[in-house]
Design goal:
About 25% of the residues lie in helices and about 30% in strands. The protein is α/β, with parallel strands linked by helices. It is rod-shaped.
């Protein structure tokens, strides 16, 4: 008999070098290959030949176990195989071709290799085994009714299924397995008519799933635990039914968990009740779903990154979810729900909302930025959240979205309408800030105008007036200039002037300056300050009435003090006792004629005091007219 001429290169686990495997099996009838390496077909092979192959295979297995030698089945045709409760050293099945039922259970292996192997089996069952070394199944092709790798203990350094295809009519099961320091499923393809199951798994180290999942039922990672520093599902593709990570836990605080650039073209995706202590990233993921993505009741204790998150179809929910720091910059949502969601720091800047967005009873401890947002259907955007004191809407059109009836934008009872942005803006003037201010004064004014228009559109005129007052307060206190005196730019001089409250300013990103007016200027020596004192910026007719009444009373007393109430040359040094009713009546008539703008002067020629009172009357009644005009415009504008 001649020796089989089959040879193939493989990597030796012990020497860690590439070696050449030379088959030592005998050939029959002058053939060049042994029964395990000659062309084989289950249909064309006789039962006697299959029985002979199985008998010889059993002998090779028993010999390897008995002598604690490596079992090398490289390139073997294996018609069927059943092994239980055996202890192996290293097993090499590279380039093997498996047929029939393959059942290897409750065995112990050191290292195991299925690289470049092919399975055309009814069932492939490797469940309940223990591997103390590495497991390699790269570039393999597993096809069977059911593929079972469940309840396996991987204790070595690496499990590697890169570039492998697993195709099953029924379920592909990796559930309840313990994975070691590294597990790789890169460029792996899972195809199943039923479920693909990784539930209740323990991943102790680095894992990488750059995988394509095609399944009529769910791909399941629920109740799995991840303890590694690097956890990557980036680049995965999910088709047909979807994937669930329900109640999965990511424990490592300094871990980076990647779900970036994933394509979800399926019915549903669920991250329900997951717990994540590390940084998790969903940047660039794309969702094209029939149903929804569920992040409800999840806990994120570190940074969560949803930048460029593309959800253009279906529904996504974050109900009862808690975030620490979360980024939604440049994301795109179709229909999104945040009900009783907790935020610490969140950023939605440059996000696009295509249809519905509901924010119900959300809590924000630090800040929530909604800058440069696009609401394509603003009438479907609802903020039914009572406390909006830490929400920022700078440079976003919010004129048609719906706020809760009891929404408050301030953080104290003194002022419920001073927004987060104004509070931060004011802090810049309490100490010297060398950095340039990003918020422009015009941005703040636009924010209050948008809020005012929003509430006017909703016919909430009383609250619209509150935001108008906030807008006017900013105009009264601050002004924007293109330059400031050179001495004020000196750091020492600036600190002195700032401490004495003589000259305070901040520099903006556009190289302009925002100056805070001093107390006298903003309260008395400016028209807007006087406007505030007279009528609270036209929002208080009561203030205006008190002001007009006070003027009328002062000038009536002034005329009464004169020796003659109709004198054309009154003096403040004359005195008249309060016992002349005719004098009193003349004084009142003179004050009324002078105060009311369209009444003629009572005295001819009028004195300078008459002209002064007429000017005050024009100012007072003008303010009343403007206030009434604005109130009527609000009621009939929308």
């Amino acid at each position: 008999m001649t020796i089989c001429t089959y040879k193939e290169k493989y990597s030796n686990y012990e020497t860690k070098k590439d070696e050449i495997f030379h088959c030592q099996e005998n050939c029959k009838n002058g053939k060049t290959y042994c029964i395990f390496h000659e062309t084989f077909s289950i249909k064309d092979s006789s039962p006697a030949k299959i029985s002979e192959m199985q008998k010889r295979l059993t002998e090779l297995i028993d010999s390897a176990i008995k002598n604690q030698e490596d079992l090398k089945l490289i390139g073997f045709f294996i018609p069927a195989l059943t092994i239980q409760n055996k202890r192996f050293k290293n097993v090499y099945c590279n380039y093997g071709k498996f047929f029939g039922n393959i059942s290897i259970n409750q065995c112990f292996f050191k290292n195991f290799s299925l690289n470049n192997s092919t399975f055309y089996c009814d069932n492939i069952d490797f469940s309940k085994n223990t591997f103390s070394g590495n497991v390699y199944a790269m570039y393999a092709n597993l096809k069977g009714k059911k593929i079972d790798f469940s309840k396996i203990e991987y204790k070595g350094f690496e499990v590697n299924f890169n570039n492998t295809t697993l195709n099953s009519i029924q379920e592909i099961d990796f559930s309840n397995s313990h994975f070691p320091s590294a597990a790789f499923f890169q460029s792996t393809v899972f195809i199943s008519q039923l479920a693909i199951n990784f539930s209740n798994c323990m991943f102790w180290g680095q894992i990488s799933f750059q995988t394509k999942f095609i399944s009529n039922q769910l791909v399941m990672f629920h109740f799995s635990q991840f303890w590694g520093n690097i956890i990557s599902f980036s680049g995965c593709e999910f088709y047909k039914r979807g994937v669930t990570f329900n109640q999965a836990k990511f424990f490592r605080v300094n871990a980076v968990i990647g779900f970036t650039d994933i394509s979800f073209t399926c019915k549903e995706v669920s991250f329900h009740k997951i717990t994540c202590f590390g940084e998790i990233q969903f940047t660039g993921s794309r969702f094209n779903l029939e149903k929804k993505v569920d992040f409800d009741h999840s806990q994120f204790f570190n940074t969560s990154n949803f930048k460029e998150y593309n959800f253009s179809k279906g529904i996504i929910t974050f109900n009862n979810t808690n975030f620490q720091t979360v980024e939604f910059n440049d994301a795109q949502f179709s229909n999104v729900y945040f009900e009783k969601t907790g935020f610490k720091k969140t950023n939605f800047s440059h996000t696009k909302f295509l249809e519905k967005a509901y924010f119900f009873d959300c809590k924000c401890k630090d800040s929530a930025f909604f800058h440069y947002i696009i609401f394509e259907q603003p009438q479907k955007i609802i903020f039914k959240t009572h406390d909006l004191s830490n929400f920022s809407f700078i440079n976003t059109d919010i004129t048609r979205i719906l706020f809760a009836d009891n929404a408050k934008f301030g953080n104290d009872k003194k002022d419920l309408y001073k927004t987060y942005d104004e509070r931060i803006f004011n802090l810049k003037f309490k100490k010297v800030i060398e950095s340039k201010e990003e918020i422009e004064l015009g941005d703040l004014l636009s924010l209050y105008r948008n809020l005012r228009e929003n509430y006017e559109y909703r016919l909430r005129y009383d609250l619209a007036g509150k935001f108008f007052i906030r807008e006017m307060e900013l105009k009264r206190k601050f002004k924007k200039v293109n330059s400031i005196p050179s001495f004020a730019k000196n750091s020492i001089a600036r600190k002195v002037l700032h401490t004495l409250k003589l000259f305070r300013y901040v520099e903006t990103k556009t190289d302009s300056y925002i100056i805070k007016n001093n107390w006298w200027r903003r309260n008395f020596f400016s028209l807007i300050g006087i406007y505030r004192l007279i009528s609270n910026y036209g929002e208080s007719l009561f203030f205006a009435f008190i002001f007009i009444s006070l003027i009328f009373f002062i000038f009536t007393i002034f005329w009464y003090f004169q020796s003659n109430a109709t004198t054309t040359n009154p003096s403040i040094f004359q005195y008249k006792e309060f016992d002349n009713h005719t004098q009193w009546n003349l004084s009142m008539k003179r004050s009324i004629s002078d105060l009311i703008p369209f009444f003629p002067f009572k005295i001819d020629p009028p004195s300078i005091y008459d002209y002064f009172l007429k000017a005050l009357g024009v100012l007072s009644f003008g303010i009343v007219f403007i206030s009434l005009k604005r109130k009527f415009e609000r009621r009939f504008r929308h």
